[in-house]
Amino acid sequence: MSSAGGVPQEPIENGTVTPLQVSLTGSIFQDAKDHETPLAGDFQPQLKSTSIATSSSALLVNLPTISRNKAHDVFLVADDVHEYLERDLDHSRLNKIHGHLWMAGRPLNARPIHRQKMMGFDIILTEQADLHLLKFSSKIFIKPLPDYLLNFQFWETYLCKSENLHKSACGILLSYVWLICSPLDLNLAHKLDLLPSEITWLWWKSFVAEFILHVDPNVLDKVNKRYHFGELRLGRINSIYSIRFFFTHFIRGYLYGYNRYAVFFQRNFAWILIVLVYSSLVLTAMQVGATIPPLNTNTAFLRASYGFSAFSIITVAAIVGSVGVMFVTIFLINMVLAIWHAKKKRRDRKLLAQKNDKGIAKA
Transmembrane residues, as ranges (predicted)? Predict the structure, then answer.
């Protein structure tokens, strides 16, 4: 039987634990013509131990309490499950730059979890699907596998009627097929809270065996195109996003991870220090050469020293000026946006409060 939240468990028969089998069916609709939206794919996980249809309240028991829409307004997940799923399985930002993803990673499957740990990567949990398997420095983002992706009734009710949601959900499942290849991977996944603790190795093997019969891990025609790539480098994704959407995301890029201006300049302008160090070494060498023979009488060398010295002075002044202008620009933009956003939110909240008061008065 399955738990209240749809987490698979193994049945106990005659005092012994037997492997839980997984059944993956084809189309859950006998006739697609009877439905406005055709089935998005032919894969839905179904636990054979689930003999009784799950109630709608049981399907939602493990979902979050609230979520936020694109305007960052709060809503109850139970009131709009589709909107929550659109946000929870959203890969649209990566899909916008899909043609450039070859610069951020290779079109290969992701490494197993034990390999990630062996290579020194620290796993950071994230709820954002578009950060899943993005890495930077010695860290990699991984989205814990949502419980609802292991519930057949949930697929039937919410996921299989939308091609976008269906492909995104299949893509996340595929990523876990990549990540968990051995009992060691599963053990690490449990320790990192990436999977429900009730999942066992025997169940997972059966699940993967059936999964790849319906979602070919080599063809990849039934998953979101983001999963045509495995791990992606966040630094390069930031650069691609900043250039591709120059007027709107040049500063913030794909993931703005700075809470102080000092950190922003340290990470983005460290190369300036390297240029200045090398320039100082060259200038010092030229200064020494200009005081000893035969270089002190070499006209070409003295002219080169003069030209490079003037170039270095101008370059340093230009860099310092550019950094100063950029700092002032970023500061002013952030200040203006913060003031505008605060006024807009106050106005929206006031209008909403008036609307609610009118509704209460009518009631």
Answer: 239-257, 269-290, 310-340
